[in-house]
UniProtKB/TrEMBL annotation:
EC code: 3.5.99.2
Pathway membership: Cofactor biosynthesis; thiamine diphosphate biosynthesis
Pfam families: TENA_THI-4
Catalytic activity annotation: thiamine + H2O = 5-(2-hydroxyethyl)-4-methylthiazole + 4-amino-5-hydroxymethyl-2-methylpyrimidine + H(+); 4-amino-5-aminomethyl-2-methylpyrimidine + H2O = 4-amino-5-hydroxymethyl-2-methylpyrimidine + NH4(+)
GO molecular function: thiaminase activity
Protein's name in the database: Aminopyrimidine aminohydrolase
GO CC annotation terms, alphabetical: cytosol
Swiss-Prot/TrEMBL keywords: Hydrolase, Thiamine biosynthesis
Role according to the record: Catalyzes an amino-pyrimidine hydrolysis reaction at the C5' of the pyrimidine moiety of thiamine compounds, a reaction that is part of a thiamine salvage pathway.
Family: Belongs to the TenA family.
GO biological process: thiamine biosynthetic process; thiamine diphosphate biosynthetic process
Transmembrane helix found in the keyword field: no
Taxonomic classification: Bacteria, Pseudomonadati, Pseudomonadota, Alphaproteobacteria, Acetobacterales
Location of the Thiaminase-2/PQQC domain: 29-232
Length: 234
């Protein structure tokens, strides 16, 4: 593969079905998210280390809230099959992403007690409480749509940076973070989640509910963009 990454060519699943339509219909906000200066900072390796460490701490706290929302997805599931799918996503966050994240933080000298004692940032509070609100008051489809930018966005960032000839690999302290989100384990989690969103969309009348779903998706995308700013010093 040469040149810049393109979803249509390099990961067509992200452009298809309900997930693809939502991503396409908020493309301006989506590109603000996946092309944020944070992403450029990790690609070039120029981000300040202290800023990145602060982001990692906030992201640990965020993932815990995200896992709670996935637990509510299990609760909201109306069939045993749906429950199993939701439980798989929950286990993917707890056993794959959070485990990877804790191990990764350790490599940066951040141990679990420090993670647990950290204070939640305003950006984290806004984003996670928005998700938890949709989890409490919406149905399975509202919740899956709200959870989707988180799942898909980092995988797209990982894939884009993996493919980009401008990404610095040698000596880049952030290359391992890029590799984590561009890696097979996280990619498989995302593919399951996207397929599930498309199935639930068909079963729960996404067509008729589309304007509301697009608002939920776009709000989550905007909150993702703001969340990158937790990468700051001090
Ligand atoms: C804020 C945020 N968004 C997305 C991801 C990737 N699941 C994450 N770890 N953190």
């Amino acid at each position: 593969m040469t040149g810049e990454w393109q979803a249509e060519r390099d990961w067509p699943l992200l452009t298809q079905g309900l997930a693809g339509r939502l991503r396409q219909d908020c493309m301006k906000q989506w590109l603000d998210f996946v092309g944020h200066p944070f992403v450029e900072g990790v690609a070039s390796g120029t981000m300040e280390v202290e800023a990145f460490r602060n982001f990692l701490i906030q992201d640990y706290l965020y993932l815990i809230q995200y896992a709670r929302a996935c637990a509510l997805l299990v609760h909201k599931s109306d069939t045993l099959t749906a429950m199993r799918h939701a439980a798989q996503l929950l286990s993917g966050i707890l056993d794959t992403e959070l485990s990877m994240h804790v191990g990764y933080c350790r490599q940066w000298g951040i141990e679990e007690p420090a993670l647990e004692q950290a204070e939640e940032s305003i950006e984290l509070l806004a984003y996670s409480r928005f998700i938890l609100d949709r989890a409490q008051t919406g149905d399975m489809l509202d919740l899956l749509v709200t959870l989707a930018p988180c799942l898909i966005g980092y995988a797209e960032v990982g894939a884009r940076l993996h493919a980009s000839p401008r990404t610095v690999r040698e000596g880049n302290p952030y290359w391992s973070w890029i590799a984590l989100y561009g890696g097979d384990e996280y990619t498989a989690l995302v593919e399951d989640g996207v397929c599930r969103l498309n199935e639930v969309g068909a079963a729960y009348g996404a067509q008729a509910r589309y304007p509301t779903l697009l608002r939920e998706f776009t709000t989550a995308v905007r909150l993702e963009t703001v969340f990158w700013t937790t990468a700051r010093s001090g």
